[in-house]
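Submission sheet (multi-component)
Chains listed below:
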Amino acid sequence: MSEKKALLELKNVKTFFKVKGGMLKAVNGVDLTIHEGETVGLVGESGCGKSTLGKTIMRLYKPQEGQVLFDGQDIWQYKRRDVFNYTRQVQMIFQDPYASLDPLSVIGDSAAEGMDIHHLFTDKKQRESEILRLLNQVGLNESHVDRYPHEFSGGQRQRVGIARALAMNPRLIVCDEPISALDVSIQAQVVNLLKKLQRERGMAYLFITHDLSMVRQISDRIAVMYLGNIVEIANSEDIYLHNRHPYTRALLSAIPIADPTVEKQRKRMVLGGDVPSPVNLPKGCSFASRCPYATEACRQSAPALRPMEDGHLVACHRAEELPEEAY
Amino acid sequence: MSDINRMFTDEDFAPIGGELGKDPGSSREKLTYWKDVWRNFRKNRVALVSLGVIGLLIFLVLFGPMFNEYDYFTNNYSAINHTPNAEHWFGTDTLGRDLWTRVWEGGRVSMLIALLATLIPEVIGMLVGGVSGYFGGKVDTFIMRTIDVLMGIPSLIYMILLMLVFGSGNIVTLVIAMSLTGWMGSARSTRGMILQLKGRDFVVASKTLGAPAWWIIVKRLIPNTLGIRVVSITMSIPSVIFYEAFLSYIGLGVTPPAPSWGQLIKEAGANFRYYPYQFVIPCAIVGLTMLCFNLVGDGLRDALDPRLRS
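Outcome: structure written.
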């Protein structure tokens, strides 16, 4: 992957929100690179800042610090025109397919919204045929064009959301938990659809999720996020087989295995304690309060992401010392 | 686990038995948005009848005065306070003027004011409320505080001042005055609804697609508030009719002898005990108008919202 061109680079991005009693540090210094055509999975528990990071990339939140570079250019230094252009190249798929479509617009218009905003088609017939082509691509047909979202199931709506993102022929799609509101059989369909589309069109995905078994399916690399920080990034298989960060291990050990004998015998890594408040972050490693391996050094200084072998990055002082175990 | 890990192929998603596009849904004809609204509105019998009644009232307001030879301003002292009869269908008033003619003549003023003085402030209010709610922050604070201040001033003061400037007694002045004072309530309620809506994903989606603010406000936010607003719009029509009557009463509305429904009711109110028909007939017509507008509004709300359509 490393030989590929970087499409989006996050450099020390910090997105904070003003709350009572200080700043909520939703994203607290994230470095991440997404290359052309690759899929980066972003996993972490609820409230760790995954969605905020996605929305920061979408230019919905302005980071307090740091840069978001697209094709090497800072998206917050953009002129109006560049912003408009950026909204064409980077698209988003939303979590809740019941909320992400305008209830008053028919499916065809919802899917075509981007095309209409960017005036991609002035000819009405051309527009219609493009809508059909898009809907066909995501597995819907012409009888659906004039129907309203409430007539559709969650999976179908999510397809419309995907069609809407595809219409712009984007280079990056931020998928903000696109499958977590769907039931399992539909999840597989949507994931396969996304994979198929990527093969055909070669766009990159940032796939935000807390579903660890699905993210393995789709991602080339996986980034694990905890409390506004990325604690580990590696190729998908490495995250599952050669992970280094204790938090990654805890997360992975929570995946149930569909085999009762294995399931009974396996050792679970159960975390004690609570997630510290993102308003008052502890000094040192943010995971130290729950980490079974934490030492005094961990509580004193925050570890930076540092490279291990083969593009594997870990933010842990004791990454080398930890016993290698695969979960 | 192995099942989930299996890669699905295109065949897995091919429709079972049958061609694409041959499902029952495709038999439904294509409809434009307004055709669809009309199709659904038609299903509501009550609303449809009400619309018919409104149509009839408008017809009578336009052509009713032509049905007999009387005009609305000529006094006839030989025919004072006649009860309804073959000659004077609604009877005559204290000055011997034909009430049939006066009722429909007055309806022109009342209907026109009712429609314009409801729609114009509503549109202004929606746009102001839309801008205020969407942009939030300082813009919102500024607009809302301005509205607070303006609302603190009794609307009658505006009316009187505007009448002084534009001259009282004509419909245009009345409509302008009512528009200038009426938009604030609608702005407030639209803003409230938009505050709720703007965080919804479909609005955020428009934003990420690069939609300019006007697009989001006009195409996403306002249509989604319209369903609720329509009811209050139709509810406000009767109150506008009565407000006009009140203004006429204190001499700021239509100048006599030109009638309006409000004025007819006001004049007849004095003689209600002796000549009840003079009072009851215009009241009944105003009541009927109000009822029909409300019922049409109800039907319209249901027809506008695809989720409520069957």
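Remark: The domain at 44-70+87-308 of chain B is CATH 1.10.3720.10 (MetI-like fold).
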